Amino acid sequence: VISSKTITRLSLYRRTLNDLLGQGASNVYSHELAQAAGVTAAQVRRDIMTVGYSGSPSHGYEISALVESIGTYLDNPEGDRAALVGVGNLGGALLAFFAGRRPRLSIVAAFDQDPRKVSRVIYGCRSYPMEEMSSVIADKDITVGVITVPTAGAQEVADELVAGGVRGILNFAPVTLRVPTNIYVENIDLTTSLEKVAFYARQGQLERGRVR
Amino acid sequence: VISSKTITRLSLYRRTLNDLLGQGASNVYSHELAQAAGVTAAQVRRDIMTVGYSGSPSHGYEISALVESIGTYLDNPEGDRAALVGVGNLGGALLAFFAGRRPRLSIVAAFDQDPRKVSRVIYGCRSYPMEEMSSVIADKDITVGVITVPTAGAQEVADELVAGGVRGILNFAPVTLRVPTNIYVENIDLTTSLEKVAFYARQGQLERGRVR
DNA sequence: TAGATTGTTAATCGATTAACAATC
DNA sequence: TAGATTGTTAATCGATTAACAATC
């Protein structure tokens, strides 16, 4: 069992390492990666242990090999396909955001109940009416769902996604979804996040640009 | 010092309580609130202790009074004002999303470097050129910044927001921001979140609709 | 070698949960 | 009263950090 925070850090390391590669670096020490990612060097070493990669005391870690190890650990070699439900402002923005960002993990279908928003291609993603959800999920072997519908419809959409065969959900609706225990749900609660920032801004609380 | 997770849970309780109020309920027990929010009853009782409210063994908690206590604890009585920087797809969607959602915490200014996107009103929010950031932040007493610019410009925007007087930042750019230690940063990393869902979807990992 | 870094365990820290006397 | 729930502490759990022998 690997913790959610570890996954987040590994993803962060990978991005930092790719930046370093772009700058022409070939090796990196734990304390350098730690500083760039805003964590401790011991944390970096432990995380790297987790993915099964080893460095050397003299040269630290070889960046390209480490990126590869993280990829082997995090990514599905066959790639993963996601579906987005709710092509409103936020849904559309997410389609634009994810378009072409990670070839191995792309949104391959969008769904909406508004007839004017379906049977179109939005930022490279085809949109379908809600009724076709199950068949499209099966046809395209989609395992991840993104929910960007209003609160009232979120639970129903979650149920349909799960019934269609999705195993994980990224939920932007501010509601606690009820799903079977083998389905993973990650909530991004925009209002709560903004409230939290306002709260700590007022408290003058220290947190820095750290992963939490 | 109050943990970030506690704030998240309190915000979630408040939303659930408001739903219950809307359904005509006046009292609630810790286990009921716990089930709705996806946490344990002991956790709920401890969080309610934190905000300084007390229930009774016979009737549980009075919902309206509890909502008030949470509000006293979380909200600034004078309200908080936020600025958003980067009126692209995501920035525009966030302006729409937050418009009118919480009167006590609203986005009152947007900034963009594109001349075509400034001096307009977008979902009720006025947009300004980047150059006016400091003066607008000061004029409107803005304490919170939201960064929705591309990665390359994010650090510079953070520096300007902080220089202008912002004390907390909600950052959507996938980069670790360097800010003074008294500035709070909350990162929403959309790519990492989607990667995380894909990872656990593959693992068949249990997480349920829980706050983490 | 000397010096710095790695891999890895033990110690620490903080958050969550279990438990239960007090209470209604 | 009897039964259920609260407030609150102690126990547990898990994650992070410190430390250091092994290594280059």
Task: Describe the fold and architecture.
Two copies of one chain form a homodimer. In chain A, α2 (30-37) packs across α3 (41-50) and α6 packs across α7. In chain A, α5 (89-98) links the parallel β3 (80-85) and β4. Chain A is of the alpha/beta class and 212 residues long. Chain A has helices spanning 4-22, 30-37, 41-50, 63-74, 89-98, 133-139, 151-164, 190-203, and strands at residues 27-28, 61-62, 80-85, 105-112, 121-122, 125-129, 144-147, 168-171, 184-187. In chain A, the strands form two sheets. Chain A has a seven-stranded mixed β-sheet. A two-stranded antiparallel ribbon of chain A has the order 1-2. At the A-B interface, α1, α5, β8, β9 and α8 of A face α1, α5, β8, β9 and α8 of B. Chain A binds a DNA duplex (24 and 24 nucleotides) through α3.
State the assembly state of the protein chains: homodimer
Helix content of chain A: 40-55%
Overall mean confidence score, pLDDT of chain A: 94
Order of helices and strands of chain A: HEHHEHEHEEEHEHEEH
The general outline of chain A is globular
Strand portion of chain A: 15-25%
Major sheet size, sense and barrel closure of chain A: 7 strands, mixed
The chain pair with the largest interface is: A-B, 73 and 73 residues
Q: Find the structural class of chain A using helix and strand composition.
A: alpha/beta
Distance between the termini of chain A: 19 Å
- How many strand segments of chain A? 9
Number of helices of chain A: 8
- Uncertain regions of chain A: pLDDT < 50 for 5+ in a row? 205-212
Q: What is the gyration radius of chain A calculated from CA atoms?
A: 20 Å
Tell me the strand order in the biggest sheet of chain A. Answer: 5-6-4-3-7-8-9
